[in-house]
Design goal:
The chain contains two helices and twelve strands; from the N terminus they run αβββαβββββββββ. By secondary structure, it is mainly β. The chain has a domain of about 180 residues: Porin, CATH 2.40.160.20. The strands form three sheets. An eight-stranded antiparallel β-barrel has the order 3-4-5-6-7-10-11-12. A two-stranded antiparallel ribbon has the order 1-2. A hairpin with a 5-residue loop joins β1 and β2. The longest helix has 30 residues. The radius of gyration is 39 Å and the shape is elongated.
Length: about 290
């Protein structure tokens, strides 16, 4: 009987001990939940290579390459453009109206432009020029002579080929333009009730200021070295004339809402896209 009693007491102590140990282990685990046991690190240990799929210019490598972390110049994040913020200035000369005048157009606008390349992506633009013309109204009712006057435009181009060779562009653009117009109306005639021709005094030195906007699309292609040619088509909007005037011709705008330009371009300070990082002849040992 005493043996049975001692056995029961032993089992009881074993069960209680097991319970206490179990509770302790659970409590310890809960108190250390989420903690990471620190491990020793050796700052002098050699760096392990890291596998990269893109070079530092964001171009995908044909074969993934291992680089040592301390020497690594590659990036796994693709940049938006592989060109620097400032990537040169492009000077342009518009000669479209020189061609049109040679085939009979009676008005001309000639301008030069300058646009700054930002990442080969956005191109702030300024344009400045001079325009003049002459015109005889239908049925010889009067003649118009537009004196040479200045105009200017400011705007921006968006290049869709910003990741490609900067020698080529396909772009959309916006412009805001303003021009000072000055013209003469001469040989003003009309017909009276008796069918006789009646002449009115000439209207000399008519002036007004005109403002307008433009939406355009164009291309630019390299010809040789820093020289390129380009053209664009422009839709002109929102023409406003001061003093209630309606000039026949507005320098930089022309005589209607549709226009185009041909340009010769000269580029200064343009940087080429750098070649991808060369692949190493041997892949470093990962051990």
């Amino acid at each position: 009987m005493k043996f049975i009693t001692d056995c029961l007491k032993g089992w009881k102590r074993l069960i209680l001990t097991t319970v206490f140990i179990t509770v302790g282990v659970i409590s310890f685990a809960q108190s250390n939940k989420g903690k990471i046991t620190p491990v020793e690190s050796d700052d002098e240990a050699p760096q392990k290579p890291v596998l990269h799929y893109y070079d530092k210019h964001g171009e995908k490598l044909e074969t993934p390459v291992l680089y040592l972390a301390e020497l690594d110049t590659a990036s796994t994040v693709r940049p938006k453009s592989p060109y620097p913020l400032y990537n040169g200035i492009i000077i342009g000369v518009n000669f479209a109206d020189a061609i049109m005048s040679a085939i009979g157009q009676s008005h001309s606008s000639y301008d030069i432009s300058a646009m700054v390349s930002l990442h080969n992506w956005f191109f702030p633009v300024i344009e400045a020029g001079v325009g003049w013309g002459h015109h005889t109204e239908t049925n010889d009712l009067f003649k118009v002579k537009a004196h040479p006057t200045l105009y200017g435009k400011i705007g921006i181009n968006y290049n869709f080929l910003y990741k490609s060779n900067p020698d080529y562009m396909a772009y959309l653009g916006l412009r805001f333009g303003a021009a000072q117009c000055k013209w003469d109306n001469t040989d003003i005639r009309s017909t009276n009730e008796e069918g006789e021709t009646v002449y009115s005094p000439n209207e000399m030195n008519q002036t007004c200021t005109s403002t307008f906007g433009e939406v355009l699309a164009g291309l630019k292609v390299k010809i040789a070295g820093p020289v390129a040619l380009g053209w664009n088509v422009r839709l002109r909007l929102g023409l406003h004339n001061s003093n209630g005037m309606s000039p026949w011709f507005v320098p930089g705008y022309g005589t209607g809402p549709i226009g185009f330009t041909f340009n010769a371009y000269f580029t200064i300070g343009q940087k080429k896209k750098k070649d991808p990082i060369p692949l190493p002849e041997e892949i470093p040992d990962q051990d």
